[in-house]
Amino acid sequence: MQIQYYDILPVLKPYIRSICTMDCGGDADTSHIRVLPDICAELFINYTAAPVAIIGNELYKGSIVSFRTNKPVDVQMRKGAGCIAICFHPGKAYPFFKIPFHLLSNTTTSLTDLWSKSAAALEDLVVHAGNNNSRVVLLQQHLLQQLSKADDKPQIKYCLQQVRLSKGLISLAALTQNIGMSQRHLSRQFQQFVGLSPSEYLRVSRFIYSLENLKSDAPDSLTNIAYQSGYYDQAHFIRDYKQYTGLTPGELLRSLNV
Fold first, then answer.
1. pLDDT given for residue 217 in this prediction
2. Residue 116: how many other CB atoms lie within 10 Å
3. Could you give the residue ranges of the DSSP H alpha helices within the chain?
4. Low pLDDT (below 70) residues in the chain
């Protein structure tokens, strides 16, 4: 499979983490890959006649939106498939879809279910654009139109920033105290704009950042890695890995398809 990354328009950079095209040439599907949760939504615009992928056990033929919050998913790209993949920053996809994200958490949804007729019109433009550079330009212009109606929430933006800076180790009490908002109200806001409760978002974030320690310090003991990542003990460390990857930390290190 060929992957090509593209520049993101400056106005979209606060919302989009990456833009790439994915082309699966040859006569065979790709191998199954387990994609770990990263609290992100990802948009796939199909520009070929081939189905996009098998995700879980379901075949998706057209453009889709995948909401990867706190569960892993197995993905297999289909032969002949080609698509543009837009990966949004955590908590930054809501302005483009306007649907409470807790309803979409850990789902893969047809784009027509979210954007109705405009999804088909966009697909048609992308298919006939001629080349991938033109396709990426068209898609970013469409996202800009969606963004013009955006309603950013400064409290959510601040919380997401603090979680990122602390690598998931800031406490929920500290977050609510700093923004002057009750935990119940913050939870409702997180469910709508992020798709998880604040406590679960913190837990997944800690897991994601722990992967850096696991990969860089593989020869070290798992107990030391657990403590470096902010876990109370190795048991909690292993529990999170089993939930978010389906594997123990040791099994994850040995896996070739994650």
1. 58
2. 10
3. 94-97, 111-115, 117-127, 132-147, 154-166, 172-179, 183-193, 198-216, 222-228, 234-245, 249-254
4. 28, 148-152, 217-220
Q: Which of 238, 235, 233 is nearest to 250 (CA)?
A: 238
Rounded CA separation 136/166 (Å): 33
Is the distance from CB of 252 to CB of 241 less than 8 angstroms? yes
DSSP bridge partners of 185: none
Q: Which of 207, 163, 161, 153 is nearest to 185 (CA)?
A: 153
Number of H helices and E strands in the chain, helices first, is 11, 10
Whole-model pTM: value is: 0.90
pLDDT of residue 2: 87
Q: Token pair for residue 15?
A: 């919302």
